[in-house]
Amino acid sequence: MRKVILVAILITLLSLALTQIRTLAATPTPNEVEAVARTLYCPLCVGQRLDSCEIPLCQDMKREIAQMLTEGRTPEEIRAYFVEQYGPVVLGEPPRKGINWLAWVIPIMVLVAAVGYAGLKVRQWSQERALTGESIYTTEQGDVEDEYMSQVDRELSQLE
Amino acid sequence: MNSQTITDTRRFTRGQIIAFLIALLFIGILAAGLIMRHQGRPTEGPAPDFTLTLFDGGTLRLSEQRGKVVVVNFWASWCQPCKDEAPDLERVWRMYKDKGVLFIGVNWSDTEGKARAYLAEFNITYPNGPDLGRRIGQKYRIQGVPETFFIDKQGHIRQVVIRPLEEAELISLIEGLLNE
User: Fold this and answer.
1) Residue to test with chain B: of A63, A81, A91, A110, most B Cβ within 10 A
2) Which end of chain B is less crowded, N or C, counting CB atoms within 10 A of the terminal residue's CB?
3) What average pLDDT does range B152-162 have in this prediction?
4) A116/B contact by beta carbon, under 8 A
5) Closest CB to B78 among A56, A64, A113
6) Of B62, B69, B126, B122, whose CA–CA distance to B93 is shortest?
7) For B25, which of A44, A84, A106 is closest by C-beta distance?
8) Mind listing the domains of chain A with CATH numbers?
């Protein structure tokens, strides 16, 4: 009888220890929580990343991240959950779909157009210079000097 | 020579026109975004419709509540002023729930666990649900919490209060709309 009780106690202790080990293994480290929090933004602040945000909502969100990691959810699933809860603002950038694509495409198009236009202008300008044979060093001061030299010539000829 | 110069400056290449149109589109989108961001919350006219997924299960659609005076209260568990007004809201809801009045709690920018704990703490019994994706808050252009919208029997916004409400003020506003 004593043997049976001893075995029962041992089995109970062993199962408790195993449960504890499993819980510890599933508990995410602060670094794992921070890694997910770094990819999210506070929905109430402007441009404030979740990992460096200390307001109560951010603290609650970080606790939810830890909870979801414990449940075995992937960072991608956690991000999707927060987008569903608070909208795309938590991603810190507009989602790359639908009309939001314009926010990504237009700045690039403007940049390409501006660079292209500037390149075209520079080429046009250098071609014009080459055709007229005009020195790029011709300045207003040069024109003044030419005028001055002409006047000197005129006055010299008058003296002669 | 001069007339030639004038003609040259007035001619735009296709590239220039496209660049100009792109720049115009870009500025237009930026301007539209700024205008939308700075538009105030609606204070009159038809109340924007929404469907709220309730914490208790099921959904509630605002447009299906015509004929009732509806009080839409935006709140969050982290908001102290919301906690200040919560007992008054619940008390007045219990006074008017059988008199053609509906209170709707919209939980804004919160976590589900904290929101449920808040509802339990203040024993709130009127329909409540999370503002998923903060879409309802965007429709009503709320700036924070608490904000409360009073909607008449025809579904029009009649009053907006952007501070904690007290029992006497709630009763006065509801009575005003019920007696119309």
Assistant:
1) A110
2) N
3) 97
4) yes
5) A56
6) B126
7) A106
8) 2-93 (1.10.8.640), 100-159 (no CATH)
Domain residue ranges of chain B, discontinuous segments joined by +: 2-37, 51-178
- Most A CBs within 10 Å: which of B9, B80, B108, B134, as the mutation test of the A interface? B134
In angstroms, how far is the first alpha carbon of chain A from the final one?
145
The ipTM assigned to this model is 0.77
Q: Domain spanning B51-178: which CATH class is it, in words? A: alpha beta
Query: What are the pLDDT digits (tens) for A77-119?
Result: 999 999 999 999 999 887 777 777 777 787 888 888 889 888 9
In angstroms, what separates the C-alpha of B77 from chain A's closest C-alpha?
9
Q: CB pairs below 8 Å between A and B: how many?
A: 57
- The secondary structure of residue A31, as a DSSP letter, is H
CA separation, residue B45 to residues B48, B49, B149, B174 (Å) = 9, 12, 12, 18
pLDDT tens column, A8-41: 888 888 888 777 766 655 689 999 999 999 999 9
